[in-house]
Amino acid sequence: MSLKIQVKNTRHGNPGVSGWYAILPEAEPARVLQEDITADWLVIGGGFAGLSAARRLSQLRENESIVCWIQSVSARAVPDVIPAL
Description:
The chain has helices at 19-22, 48-60; strands at residues 41-44, 66-71, 79-83.
């Protein structure tokens, strides 16, 4: 199922597809969680802040497990789960 965002405010015209989005390869199907995951930490978001937080947690809590829940490709797919760092 493909989700779309429709902008109703067309006062400034429709800028079309963003340049970086237009050059992306076709998205791979989202991975489905195959089994339950238990972790000490869950970081939601794989942007700069989320990955920085996960990295810092891995430095401060070396013996604890971290799961980073990220979105496959910005604004066009279901999130993926990446267990452990």
